[in-house]
Amino acid sequence: MRIVFLAIAAALLSACASVETPMAKPEWTLLIHGGAGVMRRAEMTPGMDAAYRAGLNDALEAGSKVLAGGGLAVDAVEAAVRVLEDNPSFNAGKGAVLTREGVAELDASIMDGRDRNAGAVAQVRTVKNPIRAARLVMETTGRVMFAGKEVDAMAAKAGLEIVPPEYFITPRRLDALKRAIAGDWQPMDRHGTVGAVAMDKAGNLAAATSTGGMNAKPPGRVGDSPIIGAGTYADNASCAVSATGDGEHFIRASVARMICARVQMQGMSAEQAASATLDEVAALGGTGGVIVLSHDGSAALRMNTEGMFRGRADATGFRRMGIYADE
Ligand code: ASP
User: Fold this and answer.
1) Which of 41, 255, 267, 298 could be a cystine partner for 250, CB 3.0 to 4.6 Å?
2) How far is the CA of 231 from the centre of ligand 1 (A)?
3) Which residues sit with their C-beta closer than 6 Å to ligand 1?
């Protein structure tokens, strides 16, 4: 009897532990997102659903390849984000939302948890993959953030792929802009963002985020995505975070840094820290989501919206994509 009881208790304990902190940390883990609060079940056709999941799967594939091959977390997050930037379904790179004046102004950032080195760019107009420009800033300038036409010039000089501004514009985003200007705001038109966090085989963390921002934003407006500590953060001693949502609220709540501070100073799990910090965002009136990977291997893909395009893959062969909050 006693043995049966102990066996049941052990099974229950291991089941609880597997939700937040896997019993054994996978050799590597990758989490991605493609924006929160931008989908409604009722408006999603089976074709759209399948296209989004395929896009997420492609990004997981690109990042997983790097990690499985023993590559660095920072290379994996860049690879995953590049795939999402190239996919016109997501609000980053090609297919980004447009400013009130019909231009794509792109923001991105990347952070390496090994040394907390970071790079960020804002208001990019011609760099095909803004996340590559963020990495360029991180690795070659000794600075953290550049904005405006200097980023395009710096990227061109460094040999990054440059495209005409029209490359980013898709009919779907032009329609969304027209609707917004006419006062018709649809959730699926409003915003979005893409991001990735990873832990590599050596236990290093990294985070990357890229976005077109908010539909019909005033020219020059910059949200949380390129702000280190708001939309992106990574530190091997605490966690890696990429955020998506109402940028102004995420900046005011210092979301990414706050989550990692809770992990580091209060010993919270990724899930606990994400949820406490999203509660703060909600108290300010903001909505959105975060992906979090803690140094202890615990992970969270959390949102206070109806859904978030998201995915997770790890070294155990686990790979899963999600769209709605309840799946
Ligand atoms: N956070 C982004 C911004 O405010 C938008 C989003 O993630 O939906 O620019």
Assistant:
1) 255
2) 9
3) 35, 191-193, 211, 213-214, 223-225, 244-245, 247
pLDDT band at 91 (very low <50, low <70, confident <90, very high): very high
Residues 6+ apart with CB under 8 A from 58: 83, 87
pLDDT at 23: 54
Mean pLDDT of 76-86: 98
Pocket test for ligand 1, best of 244, 248, 255 (most atoms within 8 A of CB): 244
Residue 5 lies in a domain: no
CATH, residue 94: 3.60.20.30
Whether residue 13 is contained in a domain is answered as no
Measured distance CA(262)–CA(280) in Å, rounded: 13
Does residue 34 fall inside a structural domain? yes
The residue contributing the CA closest to ligand 1 atom 9 is 213
317: left (phi over 0), alpha (psi -120 to 50) or beta: left
Closest ligand 1 atom to Cα of 191: 8
Domain count, the chain: 1
Its pTM stands at: 0.92
Q: Catalytic amino acids?
A: 193
- Residue pair 263/294 in contact (Cβ under 8 Å)? The answer is yes
The answer, yes or no, to whether residue 189 has pLDDT greater than 90, is no
Q: Is it the case that residue 15 has pLDDT exceeding 80?
A: no
Asked whether residue 268 carries a pLDDT value surpassing 50, the answer given is yes
Q: Which residue has tokens 């016109």?
A: 88
Range with the poorest average pLDDT among 18-22, 119-123, 239-243, 281-285: 18-22
**Are 246 and 287 in contact, with CB atoms under 8 Å apart?**
yes
pLDDT beyond 70 at 25:
yes
Helix axes 149-157, 130-140, angle to 10 degrees: 80
- Distance, CA 223 to ligand 1 centroid (Å)? 6
Kindly state whether residue 4 falls inside one of the protein's structural domains.
no
> Domain residues for 290?
26-324
Ligand 1 centre to CA of 288 (Å) is: 8
